[in-house]
Design brief:
Structural class: alpha+beta
Number of domains: 1
Order of helices and strands: HHHHEEEEE
Number of strands: 5
Distance between the termini: 31 Å
Largest sheet: 3 strands, antiparallel
Radius of gyration: 18 Å
Keywords: Membrane, Transmembrane, Transmembrane helix
Number of helices: 4
């Protein structure tokens, strides 16, 4: 069975990066579908280029690796995020530069 816990809170941990990754999937997906036809090539190529630009932008946001104190999994979190949920559904909050479990 497919386990999607990893992606449930991805937008919460990386809000900017998640938006650019959705644009990457949209641009490349629609662009590739349009490139299957001769008529769609002029429309598909700019969408593929836009998708590649969005992929480049998604990796420009700085991330920090955070270790959950409960399940010890390492997660990538954008620097400006103040609180998020881990894959084990533990609520973590940044207090004085350290990530602590919220009771």
């Amino acid at each position: 069975m497919f386990d999607d816990r990893r992606w449930i809170h991805a937008k919460e941990r990386m809000p900017n990066r998640a938006i650019w990754e959705m644009l990457t999937i949209f641009g490349n997906g629609i662009g590739i579908i349009l490139c299957f036809t001769i008529i769609g090539i002029p429309l598909g190529l700019p969408l593929i280029l836009f998708g590649l630009f969005a992929a480049y932008r998604s990796f420009r946001y700085p991330v920090v690796k955070v270790t959950c104190p409960v399940c010890y999994s390492r997660l990538q979190v954008e620097k400006e995020v103040e609180q998020f949920h881990c894959m084990c559904y533990t609520h973590l909050k940044k207090e004085e530069g350290e990530w602590k479990k919220v009771e």
